Amino acid sequence: MYMMWPQSSRQTSLLLALMGLGSAALLPRDSSSFSVKVPAVTAVDASSQIDRSFCGLAFEQSSFVRYAQDDAGKPNAFSANLIKAITSRTGGAPIIRLGGTSPDYGKYLPGQKEPALPVAEQDNYQNIGFTTIGPSYWDLTHNFPEAKYMVQVPLATTNVSETVAWAQSAVKGIGLGSIHSIQPGNEANLYADDFRGEGGVELNPPEYQGHLSNETYVGNWTKYADAILDAVKLPKGRFFTAFDVATHFGQDVQAEAYVFDVEKCFGLGIDRKNIIKEVSHHYYQRNAGTAGDLAAGLMDMSVTHNHLDQFKRRISWLKQNQPNIPFILNEVGNSLFRTNSYEFQARLGSALWQVDFYLYSMAIGVARINYQQIMHAGYDLWLPVASAGHEAQVFSNFYSQPFVADFIGASGKTRVAQLQVSGDNVPANLAVYGAYEGDVAKRIAITNLNYWNKTSSEGDRPSVTLDLSVPKGVKSVKVYHLNSPLGAGAGADTITYGGSQWTYKSLGKEVKNVRKDTETITVKDGVAKVTVQSSEAALVWL
Prior knowledge:
The chain is an alpha/beta fold. The chain has 14 helices and 26 strands. The protein has helices at residues 14-26, 61-68, 77-87, 101-104, 136-139, 160-174, 214-231, 262-267, 294-297, 301-309, 312-321, 342-345, 348-364, 400-408; strands at 31-37, 55-60, 95-99, 107-108, 116-117, 132-133, 148-153, 179-184, 240-245, 276-284, 327-333, 369-373, 382-383, 393-394, 415-419, 421-422, 430-437, 440-448, 463-469, 476-483, 496-497, 501-502, 510-511, 519-522, 527-533, 536-541. The strands form 6 sheets. The protein has an 8-stranded parallel beta sheet with strand order 8-7-3-2-12-11-10-9.
């Protein structure tokens, strides 16, 4: 997406939070009780097996340079360690998308020495209409040697030779063995006859594409894909990512179901050469707000789930008609803003939104998510280098990733289902998900997105107790919490998952035992009682 806010000062140190609030976090005064049956997989609507690379990443073109190398020009160990903290939990390879609106209107300059221009910073917006890359750009991909790359090439340009040159240089620089797919275009449904880039530069016909219909999108996409196939030696079979539709929200959310309609475009022959590897879409929940908007903007599950439900039509059609082509979300952020609003986009509440977003996505059949990173964006997982007066740091949203990765596990056989919560007056923003391996559940994730914030909410922090009817033979469960004593508005400095933190001081490596809130709960009469506070997520290992 081409819209994307400075970090507000952190008000409370982790030490202060632990001293003043740690015990209260474990012993809530008021708890409502509900029940959750954890049946065999045959009794639930479980997903297909989840790819161990489900937790993918995406980087805006110029921003990738800063994430891939440090200020000394060496591989960015901070980024590498944080990526490993995610992928090591599942054993999957990091699938990294390189793209965005800036490269769709960008140019490959074979004589350019710099990897990408302009240089991305925390306080500058991506320079749509002026982005250029040189051959050394692709060398940076080797800084993450285990990664597989989704390479976006321009479709917005009407000069197909630019697209071919981009693809040729990528294949030469990255190597086919490290390329996951080639993706022509970015959010082509937003191409317009009067589109303007940075500074009002006109990016219109005849030099660039204007508005595209289903028919003209298919015609252009197949033309550019054919040109790449003719000029670049690629593996036979499915090697292209298609569609890459921009997000819609608000009153337009239902457009997610039909813009660049999958059934229509396949009927028009977009896959006539059987080269499409996956169908992609983008997702942002809304435009970013302020701290006061966090509860309604990101923590209302009905909004998130209703938005994701719009994709069910695409997912269902692909499963029935193209079962070998998965549906993915290859550019995701919690909200859009030209700069950043960390008080909304980078808090515990936004990290919890991300956890539930990933879990519900898996349950309805989304095959992978690539979370977007842009130097200036407020929803980032981390800032890789010091920039514009901001130190390199881990943001709150990162904490969603090890949680989700642990939920997926390393077996490669996990299937996911949302489980029903029973009882009187079940809270609206409470959800439970099961991770099944074989016939039985191995892990349970609980997301309690009911809003509580220490500095703005009245009263003690509420909680719910779930009576989990666990499979036979389970004698105890272990519960890992994603939480902060400060509640939904907490920044990364007081957030822990499983008692651990990841910081720039640790160079992205896990710092254990920062908070001792992991619990072992004895199962009694087949039931494990698990308490989860408002504005918290818990992962239960059975």
